[in-house]
Amino acid sequence: MRETRPFGQALLLSGFIMLLCSILLPWWASYHKLDQQAEFVASHLARIVASQQDTLPLTGIAELSTERPLASQHPAWWFGQPAANQQQTIDNMPVFYRLDSQMATRQWLRTSLPLSLSILVLFAVLYWRWHRREQALNRYLHSLLTGPEKATPGRQHPLAQGIINLHQSYSSQLEQLQQQLSTAQDQSYQDSLTKLGNRFAFNRDLKVILDDENQLATATLMIVRADALPEINTALGFQTGDQYLQDIVKLVRKTIQSELGAHAYRISGTEIAVLTKGQCEPLAQRLGTLLSQELHHYQHVHELSCAAYIGFTQILPGQSAEQVLIRADLALAQAEQEAPNSWSMVLKQNDDENMGENQWRQRLQSMLSTNHILLQVQPVQVYKPAMLGYNEIYTRFPNDKGGIYQAGTVFAMLQRLGMSMLFEQKIIEMILQHIESKPLSGQRWAINLTPASLQQRSFLIWLERILTHNRDITSKLVFELDEQVLQHQLVAGKRLLDIIRRCGARFAISRFGHGYGSFRLLKEVKPDYIKLDGQLVRQLKQDSTNQQFVRMIVDLAQRLGCYVIAEGVETQEQKQLLESMHIDGVQGYLIAKPSDFDSFTGLMT
Q: How many angstroms separate the Cα of 256 from the Cα of each of 156, 273, 284, 325, 443?
């Protein structure tokens, strides 16, 4: 619907148009008369020139000359060209003249001025009367806005009636709005998808715990990161992603249902937080183990690479919310470095771990650009003459104070900041350069791969390309991957294994021997090496069942053509017992401690 102009504006516009007409119409009449005068003069110019000069005013010419152009004077510019100097040629003689425009000008002014003045007065009066009425109406409407009881009986302006109706319905609407506000306030603390508390509710409840006057009160924060959500949203759509997130929430609720006072919140797109009273260590052990089992089952049923990761930290009164959340993030990042669906716990921070993300990013980028990464080697003592030497390469990260960052913390922050692939590539490139510069022959070099490498297709493409271009060195490499990582990401692990073997390198399963599922993995993967978990080695002498289990592993692995190496050998008794089991090699502090790759010359016997 077209919006109409206010009456006052329409009145002013009408007055302006009328005033313009009172000026232009008389001008047009005078201009037309002057134009007729110009036509008459042009047609009778020869006769006028032949007549006496004193007859010029009678012919409508103000000035005429046959000798030279007229002096430059200001004609009646409001009539334009008809009132300007003119020129014609009569019998090859130039004639210069200018029309007399005074009569036309007087005619225009005599008509236009009185008419314009009358219109101005008329519309000024009309506008003044309208303005007074508008002011009176505005005062009346303003009084109605402040109090409907001031309405004048019988004076029912449409807008006034609308104001009165508005006041009459205001009380009922106000009550409804208050009810809606109360409902909206409750909803503002609730996540619409999961019906959990949202981040605002989480911040509110966390502040209450941190501000508790009882300094001995303790609470635990658990954060569950639904790691597969972005992948599901991309591959299967957002509706499937929403269902996945609701399923994770159900598992979290099932896990914490026995914890009195536990509250769950959705604090970001992929993160579910739980606040509960109690000491962190027993709660983390109980809840982490239970939820991890549920997540493993969910992962298997829905064929995911990972369902979620879990992080725990302690909350004490007097701490800042930022410190608590940094620790929880660090715990999550450490869990992401372990097997899928793992949980981790961080109770306190050192100075390095207390850095914010921006500080970590700057330091890690500095390490990357300056190659400020230390490589160390720990050799394996081998027992079979046909078996080449085996040397495991470790990565250390020096800090600015002359010490070493904790490797787990660094890899956790790399995963958190999305820099894992860059560092993994840099480390492998450095290792290949060191191996190329080493004159040692008959040796193999083991490189540990992080779980993140299995999830990066671009990394696998890069790895195949660099191994193909360095086949002489590739034949000396052994890539190690943790057994639990392979158990839960077997398809991705086999894809990596195909690349490694196709390029001529070897493959090892580290931390092997977590249960009878290890035998199934050994059969499916058929690695070149398996490295017994250090926990098995430490308990070997005291536990006869462990000894029988290790003998079974050694026997089956050697039948499949796989070398068996025991990690974490620290005592002579462990070494002798393993030798009696016909182990292929031993590794640990008893054999050799890690040393710098630059100065490494082989195992000293």
A: 66, 11, 11, 20, 52
Intervals of CATH 3.30.70.270 along the chain: 199-346
Do residues 459 and 425 lie in contact, with contact meaning Cβ atoms separated by under 8 Å? yes
516 near 550, Cβ under 8 Å?
A: no
Quickly count: other Cβ atoms within 10 Å of residue 277's Cβ. 15
pLDDT tens track for 377-432:
999 999 988 899 999 999 998 887 778 887 777 877 787 777 888 889 999 999 99
Class of domain 199-346: alpha beta
What is the distance between the alpha carbons of residues 139 and 145, in angstroms, rounded to a whole number? 10
Q: Specify the domain boundaries for CATH 3.20.20.450 within the chain.
A: 357-596
Indicate the DSSP class of residue 38: H
Pairing of strands 585-586, 563-566: parallel
Predicted local confidence at residue 1, as pLDDT: 37
Cβ contact 461:423 at 8 Å: no
Residues in the chain: 605
What value does the CA radius of gyration of the chain take, rounded to a whole number of Å? 48
The CATH code that applies to domain 357-596 is: 3.20.20.450
> For residues 417-435, b (16+ Cβ closer than 10 Å) or e, as one string?
bebbbebbbbbbebbbebb
Q: What is the token pair recorded at 155?
A: 């004076």
CA distance 250 to 318: 32
Q: What is the pLDDT of residues 296-314, one digit of tens each?
A: 999 889 888 788 999 999 9
**Cβ neighbours for 530, distance < 8 A, ≥ 6 positions apart:** 508, 509, 512, 522, 553, 557, 562, 563, 564, 565
**Cβ contacts of residue 458 below 8 Å, gap of 6+?**
421
DSSP letter assigned to residue 148: G
Two tokens at 431? 């290792």
Give the residue from 231, 233, 225 showing the smallest Cα distance to 266: 225
Q: Rounded distance, CA 291 to CA 293, Å?
A: 5
Q: Is the pTM of this model over 0.70?
A: no
Counting runs of H as helices and runs of E as strands, what totals does the chain give? 21, 18
- Cα(397)–Cα(377) distance, rounded to whole angstroms? 14
91: helix, coil or strand?
A: coil
Q: Which pairs with CB-CB distance under 8 Å and at least 24 residues apart come from 70-73?
A: 70/96, 70/97, 70/98, 73/98
- The upper half-sphere exposure of residue 105, i.e. CA atoms within 13 Å in the direction of its Cβ, equals 12
Quickly count: other Cβ atoms within 10 Å of residue 541's Cβ.
14
Strands 595-596 and 585-586, by their bridges, are unpaired
Secondary-structure percent of the chain, ordered helix, strand, coil, rounded to 5: 55, 15, 30
Which token pair is 308? 């979620």
CA-based torsion, 224, 227, 229, 230: positive or negative: positive
At residue 340, φ and ψ (nearest 5 deg) are: -55, 145
Instruction: Please give the structure tokens belonging to residue 324.
Output: 């608590």
Integer Cα distance of 76 and 30 in angstroms: 12
